[in-house]
Inverse folding.
């Protein structure tokens, strides 16, 4: 395995989209619009920018993971799991 993601065991190749008009699904579009608003002109938004209650309509579909403080991309911390 090389890097963080090795898709050799996956039955498909994921499609990676970064333009809002190319995204599919209401929840995906809502989340990406929220992300863009929170990041502003920065590269990434900060954790304290997020209010998950703002996303209550799509919260059941969400799982938010973060790389833990060690910097090891294989060690993830679950920050939020939809219900």
């Amino acid at each position: 395995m090389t890097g963080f993601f090795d898709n050799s065991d996956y039955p498909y190749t994921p499609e990676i989209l970064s333009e809002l008009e190319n995204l599919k699904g209401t929840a995906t579009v809502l989340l990406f619009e929220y992300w863009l608003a929170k990041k502003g002109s920065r590269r990434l938004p900060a954790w304290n920018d997020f209010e998950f209650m703002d996303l209550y309509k799509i919260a059941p579909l969400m799982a938010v993971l973060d790389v833990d403080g060690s910097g090891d991309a294989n060690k993830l911390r679950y920050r939020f799991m939809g219900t």
Observations:
- The first strand starts at residue 63 and ends at 67.
